[in-house]
Specification:
Layout: H1 6-15, E1 24-30, E2 35-38, E3 44-51, E4 53-57, E5 64-67, E6 71-75, E7 80-83, E8 92-94, E9 100-101, E10 118-120, E11 127-134, H2 137-140, H3 142-147, E12 151-154, H4 161-171, H5 178-199, H6 207-213, H7 217-226, H8 234-241, H9 245-256, H10 260-278, H11 284-290, H12 296-307, H13 311-317
Parallel strand pairs: 1-10, 2-8
Antiparallel strand pairs: 1-11, 2-7, 3-6, 3-11, 4-5, 4-7, 6-12, 8-9
Length: 328
């Protein structure tokens, strides 16, 4: 018997989006002292400590110690530092396009190369890190990025540890189709890390996940996500959930942060941006119908008010706007 779980529905909605394409992956092997000032402005980076330990200093907040097996998910574009000590001053800079230089700009990519997708001071260095970077917001998913905190650290042992170990091994190989293999493994490793973070018995749970777990708000969210084009009202949504209009409005607004109908409007327009960006056969008119607008002009007006750009411009550029705030 399948038991409906609204939290799982919300999680699936976010984790469908990672689609790494030509992702940057590198094994970094270092002996102390070392410190890397990361300024690549990547939207999302997965960092795994394969052996040894490291300290991660985010742009805001205290340093975090990472031990062997730990997985860190870093949401960009703010800079951060990874080092062997929490007080170590940077000795190298990772800039745009993963270009590594000294503090004075001298290139280090070639001089510290150790083989296929491997870089550092020696192949037997005390610390080995796996760095996987999503190069653009569209490859990781804009709603997922909006829902994540700046830094997630999942301590060992991680449910995804076997998978990340495989990713570390595959990163050093150079076989036909290797990049495609690495892209898919990076997606799986990221999903495993996020799933472990959300289902951990301790630690803060994001507000959107709490809302999705609620039997009233979570069920309403799932219905709105499954059928955004339906002519929902608070009354019809309350009937479908099995509660009164007052109960639905109170519970939903308290947990989600906006009323059911305000959320539906935002969800329709977020979904529309996805369709315009991802579907090459989409038109503004077809997308408007898909998300519940019978008038293309009304849709265009609402889209521009919500996103700050027209749906025609969004479709032409194929770069959808980022969501305004975390959402399930």
């Amino acid at each position: 018997m399948n038991v409906y779980n609204p939290a799982v529905d919300a999680l699936l909605g976010l984790l469908r989006t990672p689609r790494a394409h030509d992702a940057f992956l590198l094994r970094v092997v270092l002996d102390p002292p070392w410190s890397l000032d990361v300024r690549d402005r990547a939207p999302l980076t997965l960092l795994v400590v394969a052996r040894g330990e490291a300290w991660l200093r985010p742009a805001h907040g205290p340093p975090r110690r990472l031990e062997a097996g730990d997985v860190a998910v870093v949401r960009g574009p703010d800079p951060y530092t990874v080092a062997d000590s929490p007080t170590r001053h940077p000795r190298a800079v990772i800039g745009a396009d993963q270009r590594c230089t000294t503090l004075h700009g001298a290139p280090l990519t070639e001089t510290m190369g150790l083989g296929v997708r491997t870089w550092g001071t020696s192949t037997t260095g005390a610390t080995m890190l796996l760095v996987g970077t999503y190069p653009t917001p569209t490859t990781v998913g804009r709603r997922l990025l909006a829902a994540l905190p700046p830094l997630i650290v999942h301590p060992a042992p991680s449910p995804g540890s076997a998978l990340t170990t495989l990713l570390i091994e595959e990163t050093g190989k150079d076989l036909p189709g290797q990049q495609a293999v690495l892209d898919r493994l990076l997606d799986l490793a990221l999903i495993a890390a996020l799933r472990a973070w959300l289902t951990a018995p301790t630690g803060p749970v994001p507000a959107w996940y709490r809302a999705a777990q609620d039997p009233v708000a979570g069920r309403a969210l799932a219905l709105l996500h499954q059928d955004p084009a339906r002519a929902w009202t608070v009354a019809s949504l309350a009937r479908a959930v099995g509660v009164s209009r007052a109960t639905l409005a109170r519970r939903f607004t308290a947990l989600v942060g906006r009323s059911p109908m305000a959320y539906l409007t935002a969800w329709r327009l977020e979904r529309a941006a996805d369709l315009l960006r991802e579907d090459p056969d989409s038109t503004v008119e077809s997308v408007a119908r898909t998300v519940g607008y019978t008038s293309p002009s009304a849709f265009s007006t609402a889209f521009k008010r919500h996103h700050g750009t027209s749906p025609h411009h969004c479709r032409r550029t194929r770069h959808g706007p980022a969501p305004e705030e975390p959402r399930p």
